[in-house]
């Protein structure tokens, strides 16, 4: 396992880590026993960082992490997120009283005394422009409830705005083969300001595993069913903003990347790891087998300069115009 620094923090994290939205909920049925085995397998492989949120299964993902990391608080770092348990458009959601309560609730579920990285969970740009939430987070740092803070954003514009605050340590962004815009417009600015990048939705909700066929159906409680067209939250969080059947078609055209790299999953994650600005890529999982598959990306062959250029052109010519929603 290789480790990378999250911006200017002292958090040195595994370059391939894991998100816990899937094991918390909204990705179809899960089994806690399997989820815990997956977390254990990841840690055995050297993963020392996990991303979660208070709304993943209404706190269930945080509780699972508490069980898996008990007694390992010094060696396993956890990032969690807040705000979406309330009205994200209401300024009161970002008040000192509200944010303190979100932090206390997460700390209780995590069984910890301090949150390593506390992230605002995809707030509206108006909240970021106002900026008072950053003063609140500075207070929580002073109180010792959190070590560092960052923001999970939907768009490049939001990310650039966040970095105007010097105490923002990280940005979590949608970044994958179908969402390459951050590499050219956001990553250079983050590198210049020494802000860490966490790459989420790295497999485009499974499209980039290459396993889906057109017109595939998903369970009722799976966001790939109920948010397929942005009905519940930002459309970009599901299939990277692509219409599902179009996404399957585009993934098929990219299948060549798997040659010599195991499979599409491993090749897709490897491509993200080729970007030095990325502190960690955080795929999700529901089974131990998926954890194993993701970990194999670390052993995949590097991309040549010609391959990287070919992928960039493919994005510009065939993908970008099909992405729905702001990004």
UniProtKB/TrEMBL annotation:
Q: Name one GO molecular function term.
A: oxidoreductase activity
Where does the NADP-dependent oxidoreductase domain lie? Answer: 15-315
Q: What is this protein called?
A: Aldo/keto reductase
Give the organism the record lists. Answer: Planococcus halotolerans
Q: Which PANTHER family match?
A: D-THREO-ALDOSE 1-DEHYDROGENASE, NADP-DEPENDENT OXIDOREDUCTASE DOMAIN-CONTAINING PROTEIN
